[in-house]
Specification:
124 residues; mainly beta; 7-stranded mixed sheet; 4-stranded antiparallel sheet
Length: 124
């Protein structure tokens, strides 16, 4: 069965860094494009960044230059390096997999598999 398990969340002060991981199993990770999303309390889920099978990436303007998405196909794992964190980055962070491996989706829709999320809290 397909599993996506996020880890690495926690509490950090503004300006700090965290590295999220998304360990996957049950499908061919290297054939899927991947993405990170987040949802703050009282807000809708929003797309953060995506990476395709060629490791081409795209970022939301709010995180560009601060966050870096990467993938390790040998470990079936997706990463999100988050630097210069701000209080407005506080949210539950989710990873997702898209069957179209060459696709760089910026949408909330069309993703085939989702993880359960990991909480990131940034204090000022």
């Amino acid at each position: 069965q397909v599993q996506l398990v996020e880890s690495g969340g926690g509490s950090v002060q503004a300006g700090g860094s965290l590295r999220l991981s998304c360990a996957t199993s049950g499908y061919t990770f290297s054939s899927y494009s991947m993405g990170w999303f987040r949802q703050a309390p009282g807000k809708e889920r929003e797309w953060v960044t995506s990476i395709n099978i060629y490791s081409v990436t795209t970022y939301a303007d709010s995180v560009k230059g601060r966050f870096t998405i990467s993938r390790d196909n040998a470990k079936n794992t997706l990463y999100l390096q988050m630097n210069s964190l701000k209080p407005e980055d506080t949210a539950m962070y989710y990873c997702a997999a898209h069957r179209r491996g060459d696709y760089l989706s910026r949408s909330l829709y069309g993703w085939n598999y989702w993880g359960q999320g990991t909480q990131v809290t940034v204090s000022s």
